[in-house]
């Protein structure tokens, strides 16, 4: 028996299928999941999600979100899930540069929500760039 992994974004289902293991970018660090894992719900931070399916390891850049784990199933709800071939390096670099410039121009009294939004853009852009550059 194996695990069933679902990766869902607001726009589409990025993956649905049987896997033998999953590595998640948890809020407190990387989290490895095998069949029979204790049930849990955890926050995800932008980073790399890896899973093994059919003897092949697949890596995706994911954004923030949540993962629900049961003994036979993992449901990942995230705001971004991209494979290496879906990442446009130039666009990711440009988005990160714009967010860094906007963040640098903000004063200490500016909206904390806007700061968090810009930091999220930077983190998601970094996740994409790290995956794309490692694949070269």
From TrEMBL:
Mode of membrane association:
Peripheral membrane protein
Any Pfam family from its record, for instance, is: ATP-synt_DE_N
Q: Name one GO molecular function term.
A: ATP binding
The positions making up the signal sequence are none
Superkingdom as given in the UniProt entry: Bacteria
Which ranges form a coiled coil? 80-109
The record's subcellular locations are: Cell membrane; Endomembrane system
List the InterPro entries.
ATP_synth_F1_dsu/esu, ATP_synth_F1_dsu/esu_N, ATPsynth_dsu/esu_N
Residue ranges of every copy of the ATP synthase F1 complex delta/epsilon subunit N-terminal domain listed in the record: 3-81
Q: Name one GO cellular component term.
A: endomembrane system
Alphabetically list the UniProt keywords: ATP synthesis, Cell membrane, CF(1), Coiled coil, Hydrogen ion transport, Ion transport, Membrane, Transport
Q: Please tell me whether the keyword Membrane is annotated for this protein.
A: yes
Please state which protein family the record places this protein in. Answer: Belongs to the ATPase epsilon chain family.
Oligomeric state and partners?
A: F-type ATPases have 2 components, CF(1) - the catalytic core - and CF(0) - the membrane proton channel. CF(1) has five subunits: alpha(3), beta(3), gamma(1), delta(1), epsilon(1). CF(0) has three main subunits: a, b and c.
Summary of the function given for this chain in its UniProt record: Produces ATP from ADP in the presence of a proton gradient across the membrane.
NCBIfam families from the xrefs? Answer: ATP_synt_epsi (TIGR01216)
Q: What is this protein called?
A: ATP synthase epsilon chain
Name its species.
Haloferula luteola
